[in-house]
Write a structure and sequence with these properties.
Elements: H1 2-14, E1 25-31, H2 37-51, E2 55-61, H3 64-77, E3 83-86, H4 105-112, E4 129-142, H5 143-149, H6 160-173, E5 178-182, H7 186-195, H8 213-224, H9 231-234, H10 245-249, E6 253-259, H11 263-270, E7 276-278, E8 293-300, H12 307-318, H13 320-330, H14 337-342, H15 351-363, H16 369-376, H17 380-395, H18 401-419
Parallel strand pairs: 1-2, 1-3, 5-6
Antiparallel strand pairs: 3-8, 4-6, 4-7, 4-8
Helix pairs in contact: 1-12, 2-13, 5-6, 8-17, 11-15, 17-18
Amino acid sequence: MKKTLLKTTAILAGLGMTASAVSAQEIRFQCYSDGNECEVYDDLLSRFEAENDGVDVIVDIVPYQAILENLPVQLAAGTGPDLAKVTDLGGLNEYYLDLTPHVDATYWEDSFGETLNWYRVGDRQGIYGMHSQLTITGPFVNATLFEQAGVDMPGAGATWDDWAAASKAVVEATDADFPMAMDRSGHRVAGPAISYGAAYFDADGVGSFDGFEAFAEAFVGWNEDGTMARDVWASQGGSTYADAAQEFINGEVAFYYSGSWQVGRMDEQVGDFFDWQVVGSPCGPAGACSGMPGGAGIVGFEGTEHPEIVAAIIDFLAAEENYAEAAARTKNLPAHLGVASAGVEFQDASPAAQAALNGFAGALPDVSPIAFAYQGYAGNRAMFGITVERLSQAIVGELSVADAMERAASDLEAALAETQ
């Protein structure tokens, strides 16, 4: 932290500005929360402000949908914030501020390693984002329902079919409404699709839906026969995101496929209503048992009037002690290698939450290399949206699975042509 604050002081001095001279410098940070992330960053940045008189960092908390839909429009129009918490890591690269001239690049490379590549595209190979939340997708299971039903949970190496059969048996023996549910998200289906053989890239490394149809057939079938909570996908239009967290929290779902960012919410809202736990991603016929990595990062934008200060703010949050505190307070898996190796004692986390976070961390070695590559692919946002829209049309009967996949391929071809 001291290093970062000294760096900031040097930045202001280098600009020829005293604290009083920058009294009007307002920095806007557009932030969304899965739990309490924005509140924690606001608190941490109050310390930055205290050490840098005249810099006012305003944390604008917005819904996640605003980050997905409104922020890109603002950036294209030149009206974006100074920095933001984003999930379209490679897709927004053209707008990113390169932090390299303003930070210790060796520290960043040593601390954030491969996640830095998720923010890079083409010849733009600088340091663009601090990965603040490392996530991995995976299942939450209502252990109480399984116990009440007298159904054993499938063990290590269990397949999606194994979990589907077990979850249906639970619903038949209890008052639960749905065996399984999965977030309406192209990111969420990616790991399971890879486990069913989806390649996501052609031989030239270009985005592709080759091999996706096997998972599409299975997933649409589960929605048709009641294995999956159909309304999560069928009640929305286009590529709109929806989750089933509340249904799981209410005890309505035996097996819920979401991800590590939901742990804090489960810990807070489930309470002692029932016992829950995290298990590894089920395996598919392609031999993989993959989840999907991801998460969010904090980036600055080239349109800012204060690039040095924006870089100093992000560098402050990347300082090991500050990053470790944020991870502990937000109950998020750390992408900072030093923090991860030291371990994180998550604040106010129940034994169930601690076990869940450890479970997600333990599943990272099972993540397919395809999934890591897909997360860093600049075209993944378009592919996520196409996946959701076309799968949903097959689920509600507007298209056959074969037709949906044919349309998805055409959509992707058009999207790639437009970006190129």
